[in-house]
Write a structure and sequence with these properties.
alpha+beta; Fumarylacetoacetate hydrolase, domain 2; eight-stranded mixed sheet; five-stranded mixed sheet
Amino acid sequence: MDLSRVIGLGVAGNFAGHLEQAGEAADFSAVKAAAGAPKAVFPFYLPGKCDSFLSVYPLSSDTISYPEGADRLQIEPEIGVIFSISYVGDQVMALSAQSFGAYNDCSIRRAGAKKISQKKNWGACSKGFSAMTVPIDSFSPGGVLDDYRIASFLIRDGRCHAYGIDSAVRDYSYIYGQLTDWIVDRLNNQKDEGPVENIHDYLTELERPSHCLISIGATRYTEFGSGNYLKKGDLSVVTVYSGKEHTPQQVEELVASGRFEELGCPTLAQKVV
């Protein structure tokens, strides 16, 4: 699938504690959400919306372009899921999960940004999605994703540091049907207020796109990840691996030695330039 033609969206606040670690919890203080629910859906790519910075295709499978003037750039390790979108009239009725990969929702901790999206897309190579994806048999308990875990690392000066806490996909606050039902509601009903935007208006303007790539939430950081920001020359690694095939220790050893192909799973290694 040509992802340059697919709308890109993200879910904010789908791992307990991530927003607090990222210093963004206060941004959502006025956003109403049920206890334990994610906070919002935000856009990171709107193909064809020519009057917006979000029209620039931001995804790369091997590079992060360091934005000029930025000093607090962080990896955000996530699952990215490609969904098909069903409509009745101009209302989204359902999302059907097609495949998943490793995703880096790389973000600038930019004070004063009015919208989430202003921290997300600063041009080409500002985000990451793995070249390898895995088909989803069923986006429900018992499906392929039940066995997968998310891990992330920063390789700097020849040393490998765990950046995000190794986490099971099933440990997302909302996952599977609960997540898709919630996203559908947000796509239809989310208002433009505070840090969030009206996604329904974008879908209408873009003539009801048939597919979307949704990053479903970043994991919590390790102590190293929460206190260390990216620099030019770093290698950012996000991998989504089967817990049946590898232990977290084996994954870290393979990443540290650069043997990414031996993981046999969606892995995103991006050089910061």
